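Notes from hallway chat w/ T.B., transcribed later so I don't forget. T.B. wanted the structure written out for a chain they're using in a teaching module, and asked if we could keep both sequence and structure tokens in one place. Agreed to drop them here.
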Amino acid sequence: MNEKKLRKSRGMTTVFLIIIILFMYFSAMITDFNFIEGLATIPTAFSWIFANLFITQETLERLPTILEKLIETIFMSIAATTLAAVVALFLSLMGSKTTKISNVLSAISRFIASFSRNIPVVAWSLILLISFGQNSVTGFLALFVGTLGFLTRAFIESIDEASQSAVEALRATGATYFHIVNKAVVPQSLPQMLSWILFMIETNIRSATLVGILTGTGIGYTFDLYYKTLNYNAVALVTFTIIIAVIIIDMISNRIRKVIL
């Protein structure tokens, strides 16, 4: 029996691999992509990078301005994430099977989460750009809306995974809804929620760079400005500072996760 299951599993794996290869082949045909030509351009691309993207002493004089824009981007990402987390907490309480008040509110909450999550942050930036123009509000709202959907979904799953015994015990004693949420649901789900918030802060700092290019704010605007003026040395410095900032924040985030989880 085990041998038969193993053969069946291998057969399914082979079929899936063939399907994936066929998808890749037809996708390349449709898009006129030549894999061999693509590989051939890699050495040329790296040669251009090493020849142009290097930091000079003159470029380092721009570092204070770049750091100012980078800090602005980091704080905007943190602000958008924390505000989205507060709103997502209320939506997740309405949407969770454990804490929902009514089926209607639950459906509305899940719809908001699905709608905002399935539209990329870049798309939200373009949509909001039409209404609010190129300013920091547009970037903030784009990050906020995209984060709201993701965190609402993540919080709902965290609440649903919490132990039901404490909730049922409090209900049996006649505890109010807010008492159950405060004493049973939130304490169990909070570490996981904090972990998701830290993850989204990291993600939003990366996304904020691209959002800034579209909305004309933060480090993204600085990157775009130097790139369009062909100042590749400054582009290299901006890229380097973004990478260092993301690595530092990632290390801090991982350290906090180890403490809370």
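Follow-up for T.B.: Residues 94 and 105 are 6 Å apart (CA to CA). Might be a good example for the class.
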